[in-house]
């Protein structure tokens, strides 16, 4: 028998209480009982976004919520700035292109993070940019972007900052209101410890004025309609009632731990993982790594490449993610976002050690595990 353990940056492992809450008998979405669950869910989500803004929940994956952000906060021909440093910055670029905005692109090397001074310069040289699109955590490279600083330069230039936090929310620190982030998008299947299928958008009051006045046509994704329903703690169309019931269980667990403690737990898991990886003589891929996942360079890509991830899964049941696009076969990614603790990291590092040895790569047995335990026990 092999126990399968997910260490992928979405979907992630889900607590049994969440699975049980989602397995309850179906509730009707217009009746009081579900209304109470939905009210609690929205209020708990606000604590996780650290915002008093409106929080919308869609029956969609994270990309649906990204699309809603583009279609509600821009109109065709609007000038926008997209920060692209990996697969998900690329997704903002594609969405902004499909919806016919005028895209200025800041291309950053994959693995690097945006430089706020460069963003500030572009905004100064191109007056009239209406919105800046960034990711909090670029899952394809494991890099964290400096959102607080990006919010400051965007608001000085009169542009909205719209952040894809599908991967970062609930593991990497984001203070939506305090930092002045206008729109934050996320999804259920990562640090929020819930199965895939829910998309979220958190909107502050400055951004709310923009979607209310926006003249692009929308139907399913119309935030004006969603906002009217939200006043009654409802959604315009049938919500994913059981996923939301499950989500509420996870949010209650997150909020009873407290956001500062949740972020500290992820910092600790990331520190242990990085120490373990470096003790094996391996290199972390991004310059400024996030706390929710660790992207690692595969030591001899020409020899083992993507075979490493497959081997760890087939032999040990440990499911890592490989690299995407140009990074395929060159990196692997260990997620520790959401329902993970210190001993989960130890299991993941043990699989890396064993996998490398099995593939004849290098003898690292015990080195990573020891280094991580040093972090966790001091
Ligand atoms: N943005 C980021 C940063 C992501 O990691 C992902 C999912 N990997 C998405 C967007 C897209 O989310 P989904 O697959 O839920 O549509």
Task: Please describe what this structure looks like.
The protein has 2 domains: 125 residues, Aspartate Aminotransferase, domain 1, CATH 3.90.1150; 242 residues, Aspartate Aminotransferase, domain 2. The chain is built from 14 helices and 14 strands. The strands form 4 sheets. The chain has a 7-stranded mixed sheet, sandwiched between helices. Helix 7 links the parallel strand 8 and strand 9. It is globular and about 60 Å long. 49% of the residues are buried. The model has no long low-confidence stretch (mean pLDDT 97).
At the fold tier of CATH, the topology name of the largest domain is Aspartate Aminotransferase, domain 2
Total domain count = 2
**What is the overall number of helices?**
14
Low-confidence stretches: none
**What small-molecule ligands were found?**
4'-deoxy-4'-aminopyridoxal-5'-phosphate
Level-1 CATH class name of the largest domain? Alpha Beta
- DSSP strand content: 15-25%
CATH superfamily heading of the largest domain:
Type I PLP-dependent aspartate aminotransferase-like (Major domain)
Q: What class do helices, strands and sheet pairing give?
A: alpha/beta
* Anisotropy-based shape: globular
End-to-end distance: 35 Å
Give the averaged pLDDT, no decimals: 97
Radius of gyration, in Å, reads 21 Å
Name given to the CATH architecture of the largest domain: 3-Layer(aba) Sandwich
Q: Give the neighbour order of strands across the main sheet.
A: 2-10-9-8-5-3-4
User: How much helical structure, as a percent, in the residues?
Assistant: 40-55%
């Amino acid at each position: 028998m092999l126990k399968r353990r997910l260490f992928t940056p979405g979907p992630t492992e889900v607590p049994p209480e969440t699975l049980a809450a989602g397995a309850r008998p179906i509730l009707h979405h217009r009746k009081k009982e579900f209304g109470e669950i939905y009210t609690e869910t929205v209020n708990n989500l606000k604590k996780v976004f650290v915002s008093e803004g409106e929080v919308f929940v869609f029956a969609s994956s994270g990309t649906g919520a990204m699309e809603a952000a583009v279609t509600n906060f821009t109109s065709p021909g609007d000038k926008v700035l997209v920060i692209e440093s990996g697969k998900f910055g690329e997704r903002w670029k594609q969405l902004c292109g499909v919806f016919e905005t005028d895209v200025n692109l800041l291309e950053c090397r994959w693995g690097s993070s945006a430089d706020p001074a460069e963003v500030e310069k572009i905004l100064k040289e191109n007056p009239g940019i209406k919105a800046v699109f960034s990711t909090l955590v670029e899952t394809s490279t494991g890099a964290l972007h400096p959102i607080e600083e990006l919010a400051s330069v965007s608001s000085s230039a009169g542009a909205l900052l719209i952040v894809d936090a599908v991967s970062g929310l609930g593991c990497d620190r984001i203070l939506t209101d305090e930092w002045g982030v206008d729109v934050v998008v996320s999804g259920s299947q990562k640090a929020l410890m819930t199965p895939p299928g829910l998309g979220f958008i958190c909107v502050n009051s400055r951004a709310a004025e923009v979607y209310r006045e926006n003249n692009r046509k929308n139907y399913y994704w119309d935030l004006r309609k969603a906002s009217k329903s939200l006043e009654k703690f409802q959604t315009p169309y049938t919500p994913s009632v059981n996923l939301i019931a499950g989500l509420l269980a996870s949010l209650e667990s997150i909020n009873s731990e407290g956001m500062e403690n949740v972020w500290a737990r992820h910092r600790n898991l990331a520190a242990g993982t990085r120490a373990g990886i470096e003790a094996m003589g391996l290199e972390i891929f991004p310059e400024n790594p996030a706390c929710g996942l660790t992207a690692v360079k595969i030591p001899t890509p020409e020899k083992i490449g993507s075979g490493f991830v497959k081997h760890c899964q087939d032999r040990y049941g440990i499911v890592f993610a490989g690299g995407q696009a140009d990074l395929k076969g060159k990196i692997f990614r260990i997620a520790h976002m959401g329902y993970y603790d210190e001993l989960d990291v130890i299991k993941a590092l043990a699989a890396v050690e064993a996998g490398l040895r099995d593939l004849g790569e290098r003898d690292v047995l015990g080195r990573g595990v020891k280094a991580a335990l040093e972090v966790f026990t001091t």
